[in-house]
């Protein structure tokens, strides 16, 4: 690669911070408006003597939240940046170990491919099986079960991301042509993902009748858009940083030195 592991790791952290910041912007612009629509439903329930608004910290005997919604949004943005940095570290480590095995033209292409795999395994598959729900949906008593199911699907998604490349390498060692390998890889992904979707139990929560279906779907799509923005920014930024590092390395310097100086 021509770069030290520490150099790759620093680029992963920088790309992760930018990815987390991008996700925070998407949360503010896309997720937050839907979130507030859901809070209105919870407030209506409270006004009519229904269940207390879940997830809101209320003062003792008062009507004002201990933590304002603005403070919660700012805290969520900071958390998003921290999580992005952590994901960037993991991304850089995986990239450094798997670089020669990743398809794609150059480090930029490999980085985008790895980000696509990460999004599909860590974000998309769990979102399909255990989708995100707005605050007005969900029973606090099922939080533990939902979290467990989400973690199981996430781990199975990572397992699929590891098994399929191992299968591809084994087929390559046996001399299987590339077109046949790709077809078998796709078939393996379809079968394994299908098994996860069929065999793992779904979310235990039911959508209450007072929550519009469009609100639920808007929230799920917005949440998925936030994750997609994070992975896209991570893959593109890390790839650009790696390509720039390669261009400015010894080979790039030699190429610049041998290039004719314009008159």
UniProtKB/TrEMBL annotation:
InterPro entries: CbtA_put
Transmembrane portions of the chain: 12-31, 73-96, 108-128, 148-167, 182-201, 221-241
Record's keyword terms, sorted: Membrane, Transmembrane, Transmembrane helix
Protein name: CbtA family protein
Coiled-coil segments on the chain, per record: none
